[in-house]
Design brief:
Blueprint lengths: L2 H12 L11 H7 L3 H12 L8 H25 L13 H26 L9 H17 L3 H26 L1 H27 L12 H12 L8 H35 L1
């Protein structure tokens, strides 16, 4: 449902890196100039409407273990350290931070492949996510597969911890759906400048015209060329995407947890 918004966000975040590329398209030029709606229209005209879902299968493959690890680690940390929920305020954010770090380390190569599939411009990139992952491992090795992972850890730990912390604070006040959506928006908005840098690091190496820089050099160049606006590229579609995504995710989690409790209770009765 939100896959087109995901691709639009990634293209908006990375488009200015391909300005000098021989593969630069009208859609990339539009995204580079901040015209997101025009960029999406150009994608539909030049590549076809279905390409708005490019990279979506890889997203699904990535999200299944990523989300599962997050919830698993959060529950494990809460059970192992129950005092966190009743101690200082920062204690509520520890389980989410640990979960985010664990999920990133396990799933990061898929994240790189997903970003590169989404930023591919032009019709008919028929490579599947598995072929792309194998090609990345073969041509760039572990360096390419984990390019930008340090920044991803710095970004994901607070993002996930904020999301779970805000959710736990709000769920009894406004309900699961609203609390999940708001928690996702808050977490994304706080960490979005780091997300922009992470995406830009991930596409380095996929095109010969894209310069390879360190995180600090890329941040300095982005600030010099675009100022603070460069660090919020694509924030609009990201916020629109993340509210329903996290609202549904948390609602599904609570439903499954209740179902598990009922099922476990019936087993114990027998």
């Amino acid at each position: 449902m939100t896959a087109p918004l995901s691709r639009v966000t990634v293209l908006a975040q990375t488009a200015t890196m391909f300005k000098g590329s021989a593969t630069a398209s009208r859609s990339r030029q539009a995204f580079a100039n901040g015209r997101i709606i025009e960029g999406a229209r150009q994608i539909v005209q030049q590549e076809g409407v279905l390409t708005l879902w490019r990279g979506n299968l890889c997203t699904c493959v990535h999200r299944f273990p990523f989300t599962g690890i997050n919830f698993l680690v959060v529950q494990a940390v809460k059970q192992a350290f129950p005092s966190l929920e009743h101690g200082p305020v920062w204690g509520a954010f520890v389980p989410g931070a640990a979960a985010g770090c664990a999920a990133v380390m396990v799933c990061y190569p898929l994240e790189v492949v997903r970003t590169r599939l989404m930023t591919h411009s032009g019709p008919g990139d028929n490579r599947g996510w598995l072929v792309s992952l194998q090609r990345l491992a073969r041509t760039e090795g572990a360096i390419g597969m984990y390019r930008g992972v340090g920044l991803a850890l710095v970004m994901t730990a607070p993002q996930v911890s904020i999301s779970f912390g805000v959710y736990d604070h709000l769920k009894d006040r406004i309900g699961t759906f609203g609390a999940g959506g708001i928690s996702g928006v808050v977490g994304s908005m706080v960490t979005f400048p780091l997300d922009v840098l992470r995406r830009r690091l991930q596409v380095m190496g996929m095109d010969a015209s894209v310069p390879k820089r360190t995180c600090w050099h890329e941040a300095a160049d982005l600030w010099r060329c675009e100022g603070p606006r460069g660090f919020v590229r694509g924030l609009g579609p990201e916020v629109i995407k993340v509210f329903p995504t996290l609202a549904i995710t948390f609602s599904a989690f609570e439903y499954l947890r209740q179902y598990e409790s009922i099922f476990r209770g019936r087993i114990l009765q027998h």
